[in-house]
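In response to the reviewer comment on reproducibility (Comment 2.3), we provide here a single inverse folding case reported in full, input and output, so that an independent group could reproduce the run without further information from us. The structure tokens appear first.
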């Protein structure tokens, strides 16, 4: 069995979605994937979602996700260059890490994805629903479990997806 073949850098919005339904463990279950979170994303969770920082820190301690620092000159130049885009600190740091390290980026914000495509165009983006679909395809989640998460996101966390069920074609 070979090790992970990709690294997924997770933005705050995607991370919060999985924390909100108590399934941050799924980040470690993504086949062939190492999930990482930048120090800036952790800072956003600490500042904006203090009730959830303990969950995040426990996931790091359990090696479900791994912290990374955005601190190389190239990363810092990319991070600073995105400041005028209006993107948040977490989005900018996740994008900088993805661009400069060749990571896949997990991000839900449509505007951020549009900026990514326009400026860089060469990085793979996964949204929350893409991650869930991968987990279903890998047999980690059932459609029923995924649909329950989708309902909880919609009913309790104001996160809606543009389809009725994960059984629907993408």
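Designed residues, in position order:
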């Amino acid at each position: 069995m070979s090790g992970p073949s990709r690294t997924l850098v997770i933005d705050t919005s995607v991370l919060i979605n999985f924390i909100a339904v108590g399934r941050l463990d799924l980040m470690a279950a993504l086949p062939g994937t190492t999930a990482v979170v930048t120090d800036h994303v952790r800072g956003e969770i600490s500042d904006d979602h203090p009730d959830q920082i303990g969950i995040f820190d426990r996931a790091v301690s359990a090696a479900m996700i791994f912290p990374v620092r955005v601190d190389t000159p190239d990363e810092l130049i990319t991070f600073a260059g995105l400041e005028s885009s209006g993107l948040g600190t977490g989005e900018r740091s996740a994008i900088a890490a993805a661009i400069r390290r060749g990571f896949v980026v997990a991000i839900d914000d449509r505007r951020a994805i549009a900026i990514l495509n326009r400026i860089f165009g060469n990085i793979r983006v996964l949204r929350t629903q893409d991650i869930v679909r991968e987990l279903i395809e890998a047999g980690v989640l059932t459609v029923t479990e995924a649909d329950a998460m989708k309902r909880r996101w919609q009913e309790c966390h104001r996160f809606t997806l543009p389809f009725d069920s994960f059984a629907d074609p993408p």
